[in-house]
C-alpha cells in the first residue's frame, strides 16, 4: 500500500510536467522536480492532490536515490589551486552531526552531557596564529620524512599534511624527556574528506626524540566516526557503527584524557574509547597522516588545527574549597566574540553539576583575556564572555540569583603574554566562591 501511494504520487507529479521535460530520464526528472518543488513550495499554492503526492515523494526520497547531491562548496586556496571544503567552523559538524546556523541551539543542547574536562595548565598550544602560508609549522618538527606545511583552508589557518605517512612532533625544551604528566589532556581538530580513505594516527611518544620500545602499544587511530587502539579498546560515534564512506567533509574535535593509567577518547560530544589501563606511561606526542591517505579522488585535504596539551586537574569541588575558585581555560569562544564553542560544554556541565549538588555555593563568573588587541576591547570582551557563561549555566538549570559576572580584560594575567602557552593560560574563565 505504502509503495503504491508513493508511485501514484510520483506519476501525478510527472504528468504535470511539460512535454519536453517528460522526455528525459525519469530518475533525473523526479530528482530535479523535488529540488525545484522544495525551493518554491513555501511560496505558492498547489492543489490538494499534488501537495499530498509531493509529501509522499519527500518521505520516500531516501529510498529512491541511494546518494545525496553534494552541496556546493566554498572555494579554498591551497598552493594556488582551488579545492572544495564544505565547512571550516568546528561548531558545525558534518555527516549526521551537521547543523545549520538556525539549529545552533540544538547543537548546544546535544553537548549537554559532554563530560570532557581539559587540563588546567597549558603545556603546549598551537592555534596557527601568525603562521606563514607555505612554510613549515613553527611550533613543530618533522619526524621520519614526509611533507607538512601551513595552509589556509577557508578562513582558517591549518597544518596541512601534503603527503601520506607524514608525522609531526611538538617542540618541547627537552624533547627526549617525559613531557606528559600523570594527568594530561590533548585536543585538536582534524578534517575528514568525503568519499576518500582518511584517518589520523596519534602516538604517545615522540618519533624523533624518544624510543618506541618504551611505549609498546599501537597508535591511536582516529577515523571520521571511529577511534581506537588495536587490542586495547575502540568505539564508534553513536549512530555510526561502521567505518564506511562519509558523504560530506567536516571537522571533528578530538579530545584525549589520560589519568595515571586510564585513557578516554572523545569525538565531538561523544566518548568513544574508554580504556581502564593503557599499560604504558605516555611520554610525548606524534600526530601522523596515515600511509593510505593519498588514496581517493583528491587525496590532499588532510588538516589539523588548534592543538593543545594541558596538565590535568583535581576534582572541581576540591579545587573550589581549597583555593576558593576554579580557574579554567577549557571554555573556548569564537575569535573576538562571546560565542561559546561546543567543546566548552565539558567544564560548563561539570560546574552546573557541582552547583546542583551544593546549593549553598554562590559564585562570581569572571572573564580574562590575554594582552593582544586594544585594552578597552579586551575589557568589554571579558565582560561579555563572563556573562555568556553565566547565561549558559542558567540555561542548564542554575538559579541566576546564585551568580554574578564580571570581566577583568587583560589586567590580571597569571602567565606571560610572550608565548602561545602563556597567552592561552591568560585567556581564562574563573569561578570564584563568594
Q: Bin the strand percentage.
A: 25-35%
Radius of gyration: 25 Å
Instruction: Report the sheet with the most strands, covering strand number, pairing sense and barrel closure.
Output: 8 strands, antiparallel
What do we call the CATH topology of the largest domain? Answer: Jelly Rolls
SSE sequence, one letter per element = HHHHEEHEEEEEEEEEEEEEEEHEHEHEHE
Helix content: 10-25%
Structural class: alpha+beta
**How would you name the oligomeric state of the polypeptide chains in this document?**
single chain
CATH class of the largest domain: Mainly Beta
Low-confidence stretches: 1-106
Shape: globular
Structure overview:
It is built from 9 helices and 21 strands. By secondary structure, the protein is α+β, with helices and mostly antiparallel strands. It has 3 domains: 2-64; 77-311, Sandwich (Jelly Rolls), CATH 2.60.120.560; 316-433, 60s Ribosomal Protein L30, Chain: A. The strands form 4 sheets. Strands 3, 5, 6, 8, 13, 14, 15 and 17 form an 8-stranded antiparallel beta sheet that branches. Strands 4-7-16-9-10-11-12 form a 7-stranded antiparallel beta sheet, with no helix packed on it. A 4-stranded mixed beta sheet has the order 18-21-19-20. Helix 8 links the parallel strand 19 (363-368) and strand 20. The longest helix is centred in the last third of the chain and has 21 residues, at 375-395. The protein is globular. The N and C termini lie far apart (66 Å). The relative contact order is 0.13. Residues 1-106 have low confidence and may be disordered.
Amino acid at each position: 500500500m505504502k509503495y503504491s501511494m508513493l508511485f501514484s504520487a510520483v506519476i501525478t507529479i510527472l504528468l504535470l510536467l511539460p512535454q519536453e521535460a517528460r522526455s528525459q530520464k525519469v530518475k533525473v526528472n523526479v530528482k530535479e522536480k523535488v529540488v525545484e518543488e522544495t525551493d518554491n513550495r513555501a511560496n505558492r499554492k498547489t492543489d490538494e492532490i499534488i501537495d499530498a503526492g509531493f509529501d509522499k515523494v519527500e518521505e520516500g526520497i531516501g529510498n529512491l536515490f541511494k546518494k545525496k547531491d553534494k552541496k556546493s562548496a566554498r572555494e579554498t586556496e591551497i598552493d594556488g589551486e582551488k579545492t572544495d571544503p564544505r565547512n571550516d567552523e568546528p561548531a558545525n559538524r558534518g555527516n549526521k552531526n551537521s547543523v545549520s546556523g538556525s539549529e545552533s541551539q540544538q547543537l548546544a543542547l546535544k553537548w549537554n552531557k559532554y563530560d570532557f574536562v581539559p587540563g588546567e595548565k597549558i603545556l603546549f598550544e598551537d592555534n596557527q596564529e601568525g603562521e606563514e602560508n607555505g612554510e613549515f609549522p613553527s611550533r613543530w618538527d618533522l619526524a621520519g620524512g614526509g611533507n607538512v606545511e601551513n595552509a589556509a583552508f577557508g578562513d582558517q589557518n591549518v597544518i596541512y599534511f601534503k603527503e601520506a605517512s607524514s608525522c609531526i612532533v611538538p617542540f618541547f625544551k627537552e624533547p627526549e624527556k617525559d613531557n606528559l604528566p600523570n594527568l594530561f589532556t590533548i585536543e585538536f581538530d582534524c578534517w575528514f574528506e568525503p568519499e576518500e580513505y582518511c584517518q589520523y594516527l596519534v602516538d604517545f611518544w615522540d618519533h624523533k626524540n624518544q624510543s618506541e620500545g618504551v611505549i609498546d602499544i599501537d597508535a591511536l587511530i582516529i577515523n571520521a566516526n571511529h577511534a581506537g587502539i588495536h587490542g586495547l579498546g575502540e568505539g564508534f560515534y553513536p549512530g555510526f557503527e561502521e567505518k564506511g564512506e562519509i558523504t560530506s567533509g567536516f571537522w571533528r574535535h578530538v579530545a584525549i584524557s589520560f589519568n595515571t593509567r586510564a585513557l578516554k577518547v572523545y569525538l565531538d560530544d561523544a566518548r568513544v574509547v574508554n580504556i581502564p589501563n593503557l599499560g604504558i606511561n605516555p611520554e610525548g606526542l606524534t600526530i601522523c597522516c596515515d600511509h593510505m591517505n593519498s588514496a581517493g579522488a583528491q587525496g590532499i585535504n588532510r588538516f589539523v588545527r588548534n592543538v593543545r596539551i594541558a596538565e590535568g586537574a583535581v576534582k572541581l569541588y576540591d579545587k573550589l574549597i581549597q583555593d576558593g575558585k576554579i580557574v579554567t581555560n577549557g571554555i573556548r569562544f569564537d575569535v573576538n566574540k562571546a560565542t561559546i564553542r561546543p567543546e566548552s560544554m565539558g567544564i560548563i556541565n561539570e560546574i552546573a553539576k557541582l552547583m546542583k549538588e551544593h546549593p549553598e555555593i554562590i559564585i562570581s563568573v569572571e572573564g580574562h583575556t590575554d594582552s593582544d588587541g586594544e585594552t578597552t576591547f579586551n575589557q568589554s570582551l571579558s565582560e561579555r564572555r563572563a556573562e555568556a557563561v553565566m547565561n549558559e549555566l542558567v540555561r542548564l538549570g542554575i538559579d541566576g540569583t546564585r551568580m554574578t559576572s564580571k570581566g577583568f580584560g587583560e589586567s590580571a594575567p597569571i602567565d606571560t603574554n610572550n608565548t602561545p602557552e602563556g597567552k592561552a593560560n591568560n585567556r581564562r574563565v574563573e569561578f570564584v566562591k563568594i
